[in-house]
Amino acid sequence: MIDEIFEETKENMEKAIDALKRDFSSLRTGKVTTGIVDNIKVDYYGTMTALTQVGSVIATDATTISITPWEKNLLSVIEKAIQEANIGVNPNNDGDFIKLFFPPMTSDQRKEIVKQAKGMVEHSKVSIRNVRKDGNVQVKKLEKDKEVSEDESKNAQDNIQKLTDEHSAKIDDAFKIKEADILKV
After folding, report:
1. Of 13, 44, 82, 89, which is most buried, counting CB atoms within 10 Å of its CB?
2. H or E stretch covering 61
3. Residue 170 contacts by C-beta under 8 Å, 6 or more apart in sequence?
4. Could you give the CA distance from residue 150 to residue 168 in angstroms, rounded to a whole number?
5. How is residue 46 annotated by DSSP?
6. Model-level pTM greater than 0.90?
7. Do domains 2-25+106-183 and 34-101 have the same CATH topology?
8. 127-172 pLDDT per residue, tens
């Protein structure tokens, strides 16, 4: 039973780290990536659909993203969705595709993006602490119900804390890498 709690706790902590990495992909670094538009949804015949599912999205160079919709009538809908997403650039619609031209980032913009990344890190660490709390509550309930001994409970809680420390370190490492990427000119 304790092994199941431990595995579930570990799995949930891994999910928190995966979510952080997805969030990081939406942040702009020195080189433009298509991840910037991953969270943009388009009204596709009444259904909110990811931009990447209604057209081809490619980074043509370090400062340009090109979006070619699979249906021409979606150009204005995509253009409107990009404007509403407020990603820092205005879409250029030439009738066949949309181009997003990103100007080089200033040092102030880079610092602001690092602040956003720090906020994402804090959110992720809170998630991991909540997972730790849930795991400890389950272990304590087993101890209270006399399904495990006090020593087994203490040992399990220590293992959950070690798992928490490991995942917090992974988050810190991911942040250091992302911060270096953002600040690199």
Report:
1. 13
2. strand 55-61
3. 17
4. 27
5. T
6. no
7. no
8. 999 999 999 999 999 999 999 999 999 999 999 999 999 999 999 9
* Domains of the chain, residue spans: 2-25+106-183, 34-101
Does the pLDDT of residue 66 top 90, yes or no? yes
CATH architecture assignment, domain 34-101: 2-Layer Sandwich (3.30)
Count of all residues that appear for the chain in the document? 185
What DSSP element (H or E) covers 49?
strand 47-50
What three-state secondary structure class fits 65?
strand
Rounded to whole angstroms, the Cα distance separating 110 from 94 reads 30
CATH code of 2-25+106-183, in short, is: 1.10.132.20
Residue with tokens 């509403």: 84
